[in-house]
Amino acid sequence: MVLEVALIDVTDAKGFEAAYRQARPGLAGTEGCRSVRMTRGLESPNRFVLLVEWDSVEAHEMNFRQTDRFAQWRGAIGPFFAGPPTVEHFTDVV
Amino acid sequence: MVLEVALIDVTDAKGFEAAYRQARPGLAGTEGCRSVRMTRGLESPNRFVLLVEWDSVEAHEMNFRQTDRFAQWRGAIGPFFAGPPTVEHFTDVV
């Protein structure tokens, strides 16, 4: 299991949240996607952190990023980005 | 409930992990601390993301950061920091 951590700065937090709610099922329903958690900054209300658990990096890449699901997701939330998100994968330190 | 998200770049990942394992109980046992999850970067192996769920920002500040628990925690892991960590609080978008 890997954890995708995406740092997303937006121009319009309310618009972004509404778009996210509509687009979320396309992400959450992807094969290999175990959980989706979107969080909003308290100190920085236009900053969001998206946490997605995937079976593997390959599941994220092959089942989502290289498919129409990603095009639809990015098409929905992308217009609210203040800049390119930072997206990296992490594994648990046990 | 709030989620603390800390981005930590280190100079020595193995040393940092060992220090974290020893210091973790002092953090996890703090009143108002609900969960502690440390993750290590796949693309950036010297980057860690720490996720801590707190009852509130106040619990984090009053029960941890302003106590000897924090001094001990920072004393253990701080020597491995490549720079000041970025620490912010987030709430779930439901």
How are the secondary structure elements laid out?
Two copies of one chain form a homodimer.
Chain A: E1 2-9, H1 13-28, E2 33-41, E3 47-54, H2 57-65, H3 68-77, E4 86-92
Antiparallel strand pairs in A: 1-3, 1-4, 2-3
Helix pairs in contact in A: 1-3
Q: State the helix count of chain A.
A: 3
Main sheet of chain A: which strands, in order across? 2-3-1-4
- Quaternary state reads homodimer
**CATH fold-level topology of chain A:** Alpha-Beta Plaits
Shape estimate of chain A: globular
First CA to last CA of chain A: what distance? 13 Å
Class by alpha and beta content of chain A: alpha+beta
Helix content of chain A: 25-40%
Radius of gyration of chain A: 13 Å
Largest interface, C-beta within 8 A:
A-B, 25 and 25 residues
Approximately how much beta-strand content do the residues of chain A carry?
A: 25-35%
**Record field, number of beta strands of chain A:** 4
Average pLDDT figure of chain A: 98
CATH class of chain A: Alpha Beta
Q: Spans of chain A of 5+ residues with little confidence (pLDDT < 50)? A: none
Order of helices and strands of chain A: EHEEHHE
Largest sheet of chain A: 4 strands, antiparallel
Proper CATH architecture of chain A: 2-Layer Sandwich
What is the total domain count of chain A?
1
